[in-house]
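Co-fold these.
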Amino acid sequence: MGSTIQKKLMRMVMLICGTILLLTSGAYFVYEYIIYKDLARQELASVARIIASNSTASLAFNDQEDAKEILSALRAQKSILAAVLYDADGKSFCTYMGEAMADSMPVYKGKDGYQFTARFLEGFEPVVQNEKRVGTLYLRSDIQAIYDRFFLYGIIVVCFIAVSFLFVYLLSKQMQRSIADPILKLAAAARIISNKKDYSIRVAETNTGDEVGELTKAFNQMLGQIDFQNNEINLLNANLEEKIRQRTEELQNANQALVEQNEFIQKLIDSSVDLIAVFDEQLHYIAINKQAASVFNRSKEEVLNRHILEVFPSLKDKPIIDQLKRAFGGEFLHVKAYQSQVSDHYLENFFVPLQNKNGLVDRVMLIGHDITDLVEANEKLKRANAQLEKSNRDLEQFAYVASHDLQEPLRKIRTFSGLSEQNADKPEIQKRYLSKISTSAARMSELIQAVLNYSRLSKKEEVAEEVALQQVIRQITIDLELAIEEKKAILLMEDLPVLKGNALQLHQLFFNLFTNALKFSRRQPEIRINYRMVAPEQRFEKELPGEHQWIEISFADNGIGFDQKYASQLFSIFKRLHQSSEYAGTGIGLALCKKIVENHGGMIRVESAKDHGTTFLIYFPTTIVSFSAQSLETDQALEIQ
Amino acid sequence: MKQCGGHIKSWAIAAIMFWGLLFCAPDAAAQKQVTANQVKAVFLYNFTQFVTWPPQVVQNGPFIIGLLGGDPFGSYLDEVVAGEKVNGHPIVIRRYANVSEIGNCHILFVHQADPKEVMRQLRGRSILTVGDTEDFLSEGGIIRFSIQQNKIRLQINAASARNAQLSISSKLLRLAEVLNK
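Predicted complex below.
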C-alpha cells in the first residue's frame, strides 16, 4: 500500500462507509432507545393495570391481606422493585418491597402517569372499579435492565461496525486496484522516463474502457510522438553539430587571420618612436603603444579600457581633455609644444579624429612626438642667452664705471707725473708727487682686483659643498682680528646652520658684511648674527617666491646706518653713499654680496635708519640648508672682543 | 378519578382510612373512631360495584337499598350513597318494617328480623340479602358480616346468590369466605 492514490482511495471509501455506519447505528440506537423506553413504560402500565384491577375489592372491602397477596404476585416480575397501594384518600394502604429495596416510598400527590427518573421508571395507576375510583397503585421499576440492554446494543453495534469496516477494508482494497493500478503503472512509467530519458517505454494498456484506460492510451501515444520527435531532433542536432563544427573552423581561421593582423598592427604602432594612444568617445583608452606606456610609466593593462582621468586623475580640467573633445568633434589638432602633465617629457601632440564606416568620429588617435631633447636644448640656449645678456649688462655697467672710477687714479697719476716733470729739480717735491702716484697706482690695482673678483663671480662655478657658517664667521674674525681689536667690536651670534654652497663665496659674503660693519661705525661696533625659519604666512609679506621654505639670516650692526630710501641703490656696483675720503672702499662689496646670495638661489635685503644701525637680511631656500650636518661645540652666543 | 359526593364520600374515606390505619399505621389509630356500623354502611354501598343484577331488575327506576327491621346506621348510610349512581340510576334508601312492604329492591340489609321468614318470602327475587346473624347464610341469606379478630369479614353463600340470579365478582368472592349450601 505504498502509493498515495491508493491510500487516498482507501481512506475515502473507509471514511464514507464509516460515516454511513456511524449514522445508521446512531439512528438505530436512538430509535431503539425511544421505542424501548416506550415499551418499558407500556409494560409497566399494563402490569399496573392488572394489579390495580385485581386490587379493587381489597380496597373496597378493606382487605389488606388480600392486597398484600395481590402485590406479592409482583415477585415474579424481577424488574419491579416496589409497589404501593393507596386508598381513595391517598393514604398508603399496602406496600410491597422487592429484594434489596429499602427506599422510602413516595406520597401520592394526585397525579397519575409514568415517568423515568435517574434510577427508576415509576408511576401511579388509578384503581377503578366500575368507573369508580377506589384508590391508586404506585409501581417502581428498575431501569438497569434498560441500561443493560443498551450496553448489549452498544456491543453489538461496535462489533457490527468493526466487522463492517473489515469487510469495507477488504472490499475497497480489492476494488481500488481497478482505479489505482493503471494510474500507478502510469506514474511508475513516467518516473522511469523522467529518470532515464528513455522514451521507448510503453505502459501496458488495460481494457477497462474507462478514463484511466484512455489516459494510458493517450500517454503511450504521447510517448510515441516524443520518441519520434526525439529521433528527429537528434538527427537535426547531428546535422547542426556538423555545421557548427564547420562554422567554428571557419571562424577560427578568420580569427587567426584577425589576430595576426592585430598583432601586425600592434607591432606597427609599437615600433613607432612617437607616443600613440587611441580613445573612444567616453575617453577610454582602447589602444596604446609601447612608447607611450614607457613614457607614462604604466603597463598597457593598467591603461587599456579605462578612462583617461581614472588612469591620470591629475589631468582633470587640463587642456588635453578639451583638445580630445574637440578632436571628437572632427577637428584635427596640432599642439606644437606640450609639457606632459604626467611625465617630464615635452611632446608635440597630434589629435587625429578617426571616422567609422558611417563617417562619424568615434575614436581619436593621439600621436605624441617626443620633443623633450629639443625643448631642453632650447631652454638651455635661452638660459645661456639670458646669462649672456646679463653679462653684457654688467659689462656695460662695468665699462661705464671703469671709465669713470679707473680714470680718477689715472688722472691723478698723469697730473702728478706732469707736476713731477716740472719740478724735476726739486727732489723733495718730486718725492712727494711720486708717493702720490704710487698711492694712486695701488688704488687702481685694488680696483682692478675687485673688478676681477666680481667678474669671477659672474662665471658661475657650481660646486656645492657643505659649509658651516659658524666656521666661516670664526675664520673671518681671525682674518679681521686687528680691525676688531682696534675698534673693540663685539660679536653676538647664535648657532648658525650649515649651507650647501660655495665656501669661498660665502666667506666673501660675510667678510664684506663684517668689513662694512666695522667700517661704518663711530663708536664701539656691536654685531649680531641670528637666523630663523620664515613662517609660510610671512612669505608674502617678505616678497619671497612661494615654492619652497626660506631661512632668514639677519646680520645687524649698530653703525651709522643710512636713510632707507637709498636701500635699493645699495647693492649696485660702484655705488657709494659716502665720499671715499670719508669711508674707504671700492663700491663693489655689496654688489658682490648680492651676486653671491643670488648665486645660491637666495635674496638679500637691507633695513636701516640713519644713526640707528643697519640690518642685512639674507634669505636662503631651505633646500640648501642642513641643520644636522654639523653640531657646533657651543650653544651660547659666541662673543669676541 | 371519578368525582364523589361531599359528606358521605368523606365519611366513607374516613372509614377506609380507619381500617388502613389500623393495619398499616397503628400509631395513628386513635385519630378517628369509626364504628362497625359505619363500615358496614360503606360495604353495603360497595356491593353495588361487585355484584351484577339481572338486567330486567335494574332497567327501571332508582337503585334501591332496603333496610329491614330497623336502621342501625342512622343517617350515615344516606350520606354514603348520596349522589352515587348504579348503572345511571340514583341510589335510594328504603326502610321496611316487615317483609311484605318490600317492593322493588336490590340490596336488602336484614337487621332485626327472622331470616328464615324473610328468605322464604323473598325466594326467587333478585335481591342481594345482607345480614349479620349467625344463621343468616344457612337460612338462605347471601352475604353476612362477621366480626373476626376485631375486623369485619364477609361470608357469601354462593348457592343463594345463584338462586337469586346475582353474579358476584370473583374479586369479592376471593375476599370472602364462600359457602355453597
